[in-house]
């Protein structure tokens, strides 16, 4: 079966694009192939192929803390005694 292809231009966040390409490379996929999979799943699901959630204020604040390293405590795990 021959699939007709078309060229499409999209504007992407440069950093996000590069991070995604690295992830897809581990699966042996190009960015184009990954986008085609996303579109096929969107059509199959008749919508986004995943649930979209908007984080609440507390979660957003925690995410900012993680990114900035704020409120960070180093933990030391001690080995558990063997019986």
TrEMBL record:
Domain of life: Bacteria
One Pfam family named in its UniProt record: RelB
Keywords, alphabetical: Toxin-antitoxin system
One BP annotation, GO: DNA-templated transcription
Matches recorded under PANTHER family: ANTITOXIN DINJ-RELATED
Sequence similarity: Belongs to the RelB/DinJ antitoxin family.
Descriptive protein name: DNA-damage-inducible protein J
The organism of origin for this protein: uncultured Sulfurovum sp
């Amino acid at each position: 079966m021959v699939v007709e292809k078309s060229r499409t231009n999209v504007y992407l966040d440069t950093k996000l694009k590069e991070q995604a390409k690295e992830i897809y490379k581990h699966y042996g996929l190009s960015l184009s192939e990954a986008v085609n999979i996303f579109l096929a799943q969107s059509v199959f699901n008749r919508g986004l192929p995943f649930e979209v959630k908007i984080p609440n204020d507390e979660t957003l604040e925690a995410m900012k803390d993680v990114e900035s390293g704020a409120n960070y405590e180093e933990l030391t795990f001690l080995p558990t005694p063997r019986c």
